[in-house]
């Protein structure tokens, strides 16, 4: 068996254009690829009958963030808290969490003000337009 290496972090969204706008505007990520995939092999691989999807890959300082919009779209997941098994989040570091928070558009939902944890790390959680959690932490 070969040694695995990380390729991307995937996030399913309901509106790809809206999600791309959020991640490029709020986090200044660059779009590095946009493409669509469909066909029987794809539908079988994702176990969604007749599925096709539009993708955008964004660069987060060497980590590829994959945004994907499926057709047909599945049911939205109920809002989850981080303490539940299966909960996921994307972690992005910034130079100064407090300054990042101060510059956020008021329309961006946050779970709280920035907080410094027992480990000394300052963190802030925000939600993207689909409710996906993004942890923002000091670099």
TrEMBL record:
Keywords: Metal-binding. GO terms for molecular function: metal ion binding. InterPro entries: Glyas_Bleomycin-R_OHBP_Dase, Glyas_Fos-R_dOase_dom, MMCE/EMCE_epimerase, VOC_core. The keyword Nucleotide-binding does not apply. It comes from the Archaea. Residues 5-139 form the VOC domain. Signal peptide: none annotated. This is VOC family protein. The lineage of its organism: Archaea, Methanobacteriati, Methanobacteriota, Stenosarchaea group, Halobacteria.
